[in-house]
Amino acid sequence: MANDDFEALTARYGYPLYLYNASAIVAQLDSLRAALPGFECFYSVKTNPHPGILALMNNAGTGADAASAAEVDRAARAGFSPDRIMYSAPGKRREDLEQTLDHCILVADSYAELALLQRMCEEKNRTASVGLRVNPNLAFGPGTSPELLPGAPAKFGVDVESLPAYRAFFASLTRVRLCGIHVYVRSQVLDHRVLCAYLEHVLDLARFCVTDIGCKLDFINFGGGFGVPCAPADSPIDWQGLRPLLERVAARGDDLKPGRLRFIVESGRYLVAAAGTFVTRVTDVKKSRGRIFVLAPGALNNFMRPALMNLFASFPHPVPVPLEPLYSGIDAFAVSIPGREGEEKVEVTVAGTLCTALDCMAASVALPLPRVGDILCVNNAGAYACTLSPHEFAGLGRPKELLLAADGSVSAYPEYVASRRRRPLRKNRA
Ligand SMILES: Cc1ncc(COP(=O)(O)O)c(C=O)c1O
Predict the structure, then answer these.
(1) CB count, 10 Å around CB of 406?
(2) What predicted TM-score, i.e. pTM, was given to this entire model?
(3) Which range marks the domain in which residue 32 is found?
């Protein structure tokens, strides 16, 4: 997009704002599907729950990976049918279960939750088919090492090694049928060998559930973790390299797929991270003791991740691997001034307009000397960006989130608020 387009958008919708490029999202989805034939792709709603993006995913036929009852609701209202919404989260409340049981595939996160579901079903004189999140005996090696390490303690799911001791418990679940397993270890994996080793491990785990625990599985949700380059040294996932390894995984899974066993992966950042641009405008430029400060609204409060990255980097002992769902380094978010690309650059600090030093978009970045009124764009703003930010801070509120369609038209989605109006949801047929 040219500078004039950004000027027009900020004049119309105010600033800061987010702009999501639908074509870029579809291209990522196509590449993921092409790389993973035989797998259904579920979009992780928490990454970016914008209703336009949910509608796009629903039209493209993905499923929805929901992390709360509210996300089940959002997905259902965007049109996803119950068999294409999977709800997995730790520590669900009884009301979360009651609200969602008929509107999605529920994934229990503990034995206590399974027992609660059994009691609920007894009380309501009904049955339910649910999945179980399993915490595998696996962790990823550091950096790009394809090595898998023994699993760590986790608040998610039930430890795989605890399953045999619960055979009698599973048999006692007369109202609840265990119909699938869900596994997820971590995010932002770029090494195809790590991904393949992971998928193979989950397949083995599923086989163990079938043969040793006696589960009759309808689905295996392999999780995902598909990463996107977010540092100059990062390379994208080598899908070509993954293909032969994946074929091996698929062949090994053939014996598990006699009926209609669904192989599912879930993905968020891979699909939407690079499709988002954060747009703001320079409101002041000042010099303090030799440093140039460029001020523009929305740094910490509307796009928190760059500010957090700057904070981590300022620690005397920087955090080696930022925690989920951040997983990005200091240089993940490039600031630019559209239309001034060729000009000579100076080193500046780009900061927000809040009364806190934490409100920093880029501690040190080379830009053409910004002028008041200039448009500032920040890339990689599609995943865990708007949704993860503390918009209410200083009473400033949520920025507009616009969807740029393939034909160049832009939608502002007033339905974002209107969609919260209640209308009956479709129910599971089971
Ligand atoms: C269970 C689960 N599924 C899917 C995701 C989405 O991960 P990503 O955005 O890296 O694809 C996450 C991220 O935290 C997760 O915890």
Answers:
(1) 10
(2) 0.94
(3) 22-272
